């Protein structure tokens, strides 16, 4: 019986470091059209069972899409998982070649589940949502600077920059709305999500772009994926506080704002929040529980394709 082969790819802006497991072969290609073509030729010769990469600020997208287009089983894994795996097997040194070898070993041992690779339309939506978040952060940063004792001329410059940023935000919002309206699938999901009090255009767009698994997982799985599932911290007789950990920070941040709005305007979330407070829960813990409850509701709505109803 032939030994299964697994590939790990460490991606940087200009280079692809590739390693195989278990034979520990390694290669290096440029991260451009020519290098990706050479990588595909290599892949065709070895037929790996699975190829694993880390997210690298978007530099992994061209090679991931190219691999998926060729029918290669490929998955992009959270970098934190890879680093923790490296520490667990005693690989503390860090170079691109070592990282590729660790990723290949991770692929062979852990065998992470394969998720569908986003098509170009989905990648564009995700990039637009990311750009909107950057612009929003810049508006907040510039607005905070107005409180500092700058010269009046500098304040006028800051105000002009804020005005420009807000115009860009408005344009981005129009683009997002148009992209969602142009897709029957996204349009239906958007309407379902926004039927829930507290869910607006921003959170709906974030979920469509960055949580495509919504509706395909059970409530525990989706909560863990986003990072709002509490994990036990027990050892022997010690019982530590349960804490949330990991997950998709951008989705979690949007859920946080939606939960705050939901406490005021969504009767189910509001009742749940004040019920927890009345039983001695701290406000922060109660808010996280509301985030988890809201995510569960959204997951069920998308799964069953039914609008929000409060009986």
TrEMBL record:
Residues 191-273 form the Transposase IS116/IS110/IS902 C-terminal domain. Residues 8-147 form the Transposase IS110-like N-terminal domain. It comes from the Bacteria. InterPro entries: Transp_IS110-like_N, Transpos_IS110, Transposase_20. This is IS110 family transposase. It comes from Candidatus Dehalogenimonas loeffleri. The lineage of its organism: Bacteria, Bacillati, Chloroflexota, Dehalococcoidia, Dehalococcoidales.
